[in-house]
Amino acid sequence: MGDKLKVGIIGATGMVGQRFLCLLENHPWFEVTVLAASKNSAGVTYKEAIANRWKMTTPLPEKYKDMVVKDAFKVEEISGMVDFVFCAISLNKEQTKLLEEDYAKHETPVISNNSANRNVDDVPMLIPEINGVHAQIIESQKKRLGTKRGFIAVKPNCSIQSYVPPISALMEYKPKNILACTYQAISGAGKTFNECPEIIDNVIPFIDGEEEKSEKEPLKIWGQIESGKIINANSPIITTQCIRVPVANGHLAAVYVSFKNKPSKEEIISRWENFKVPEIVLGLPNAPKKFLKYFTENNRPQTNLDRNYENGMGISMGRLREDKIFDYKFVCLSHNTLRGAAGGGVLSAEYLKACGYLNAK
């Protein structure tokens, strides 16, 4: 294992946990040493725990098959075996919040895929290309928790990953109002088509809790650190509709935006195409070489064709044009279980390691 950090996956049997395992199979910095899940899956090998529930299109990596699944609530035991954990366990918010804090208080940093701690004002919610500076709040969080190295960092909800990056590239023009309608894949609910027959030949116009997250979370990403807290931005005003569509992977958004200082179409495309990410991010193993891509074709981006742009870690946009009510409208696309979930978590961990927040115990 050499100098690799030892990693635990909390919630290893679910779809996001499985995606974590695929992404970390040959990771240059991290080595998975613990797989953990609920008590129902604990005590058996991973291949027995998932049985016929492997949801990835690639085979289950051999290196994980015979690992014995731990009880995720045996925090002290697991903390003694790892340097940090990724958390993708499926519990209610209060249970998740307490479990993640327990790991942090056992001096085990948590990179969370869950929403339970996203609204905590000293927990950074990271898109490293955009708000990596928010990692500085970790020092305030450690003081609150009484820890030396334990903390929690979260990634945002998958639904906002398509439209927050392109809007972030345009902040100099002061966006005022945003309408975003997201057309979200079934993997966002942790399901495959075999597990979601109700979506066949159908569209479901409701995803529980998704619109609230989609409207509030961008304001934290665009917020500022003040007096040991992340203070949410007070603009733009965002309204959303989130719709489940019969697609395996990929969240597409139709976005409408008005600005205080309206840019030209050419200025918008230039900002997207020339968006600069921090140098420290460019050197991370899972960072896209080009974060934002604008398609000039009228029928792009398409979910099936473009969700894997930059190995699923890039964001693509298209169909930018003026609007009769808002200033502009466009469509954009992100891969929800890569950039939006496990991949975003791995990239955040890479960023935190590069910044010195993750290290060996």
TrEMBL record:
In alphabetical order, the GO MF annotations are: aspartate-semialdehyde dehydrogenase activity; NAD binding; NADP binding; protein dimerization activity
Matching entries from Pfam families are given as:
Semialdhyde_dh, Semialdhyde_dhC
In what residue span(s) does the Semialdehyde dehydrogenase NAD-binding domain sit? 6-138
Q: Which family does it belong to?
A: Belongs to the aspartate-semialdehyde dehydrogenase family.
- Name by which UniProt lists this protein: Aspartate-semialdehyde dehydrogenase
Keywords for this entry?
Answer: NADP, Oxidoreductase
SMART domains, from UniProt?
Semialdhyde_dh
The entry's active site is 158 (acyl-thioester intermediate), 251 (proton acceptor)
Question: What's the Enzyme Commission number for this chain?
Answer: 1.2.1.11
NCBIfam families listed in its UniProt record: asd_EA, PRK08664.1
The gene name on file is asd
Origin species: Clostridium beijerinckii
The record's annotation in Gene3D superfamilies points to: Dihydrodipicolinate Reductase, domain 2, NAD(P)-binding Rossmann-like Domain
At the top level, the lineage of the source is Bacteria
Q: Which InterPro entries match?
A: ASADH-related, Asp_semi-ald_DH_pep-lack, NAD(P)-bd_dom_sf, Semialdehyde_DH_NAD-bd, Semialdhyde_DH_dimer_dom
Gene Ontology process terms (BP): methionine biosynthetic process; threonine biosynthetic process
